[in-house]
Write the C-alpha cells for this entry.
Amino acid sequence: MQNNKRPESLARITTTQAAEAFIQEQIAEVRAQVGDKKVLLALSGGVDSSVVAALLIKAIGKQLVCVHVNHGLLRQGEPEQVVEVFKGQMDANLVYVDAVDRFLDKLAGVSDPETKRKIIGSEFIEVFKEEAQKLEGVKFLAQGTIYPDIIESEKGVKAHHNVGGLPEQLGFELVEPLKFLYKDEVRVVGDTLGLPANMVYRQPFPGPGLGVRCLGAITRDRLECVRRSDAILREEFAKNGLEGKVWQYFTVVPDFKSVGVKDGKRTFAWPVILRAVNTKDAMTATVEDVPFALLQHITERITGEVEGVNRVLYDLTPKPCGTIEWE
Ligand code: XMP
C-alpha cells in the first residue's frame, strides 16, 4: 500500500533553502527506489512534468527517458522550448515524437467536444505505449502527480494520474517525487532547479490543449489562427503587466465566418474570441477588467497579423454560467 498522506514533518516549502533540502531528500529517495533501472516520463512541458524531469535528471541523469509527444495542439513555441531546455540545457535523454499528423488526422471531422477529448487522450496513450515498447530496461514510470491530485482522487473529483490510464496500461512502478507538494511549492522547487520562469509560473493549460479552443471539427488553418492569436494575446499581456496577474487567458476560434471589409474588399473570415478570467479553484471565475485601449490594440494586432480573421470579441461571461473553456 502506498502512503498517500502528506507527512506532518514536511513544512511548507516557501524558500530556496527549503526547496534545496527537499530536492536533496528526493534525489536520495529516487536513487534508492530505482537503482540502475530506467525511468520513463511523459514530458508535456507543463509545470509538474517539467519539475519532475528537472529533479530526476539531477538524481539519475540519463537513466531518465523523457518522451515529449507533440500532438499539434500545443501553444506557439512550446515544443521548441521543451527541446531547448531539457535537451539543450540539461542534456536530458529526450525522445521527441512528432505526432502532429497522426492526431490531426484522427480528429478530422470530429466536432463533439467529449469525443475530441477521448481521441486526444487515447491517441496519447497509444503513442506513448509505442515509444515505451521501443525501450529496454524500463521498470518505472515517473509522474507529475501533486498533492491536490491525490486529495481530489480520494474525494472522487478526478482520477489520480495526470495522463489518464498510463500506469495501468504499462504496468510500471510509479515514481512520484512531487506527490506531497502543493502547486506553489512545486513552483519554488522548479525555480530552485533552474527552470525558466515562463515554464514554472505558466498559466494552467488543459491536457487537450488548443484542441478545445478550435471549436467543433479541428482544421489545420483554424488551429493556426488559435495558435497565432493566443501568442499575440500572451505577448500583449506580458508587455502590459497582466502576465502572472490574470489566472488564465487564451483565445478561441469558432467554426463559423462573418462578413467584414479589408483594404476596400469584402472578407468572409473567422472571429477570434478573447477570454481572460480569475479564479482560486476553477470552480467559479470572474472576468478580468482588461483596459479597453489594450483590447483595441490586441484587436488591431490579431486582425492585422492573423490570416483568416476579421473580428475580435471579448467574452464577458463569468463562471457560472459560462465554463472557463468553450468546450
Ligand atoms: P472549465 O472549462 O471546466 O475549466 O471551467 C476549469 C479548468 O480546467 C481546465 N480544463 C481542462 N484541463 N483537461 C485538462 O487537463 C481538460 O479536458 C480540461 N477542460 C478544462 C480549464 O483550462 C480550466 O483551467
About this structure: The chain is about 40% helix and 20% strand. Strands lie at 38-42, 64-70, 93-98, 138-142, 173-175, 248-252, 258-262, 265-278, 286-287, 309-314.
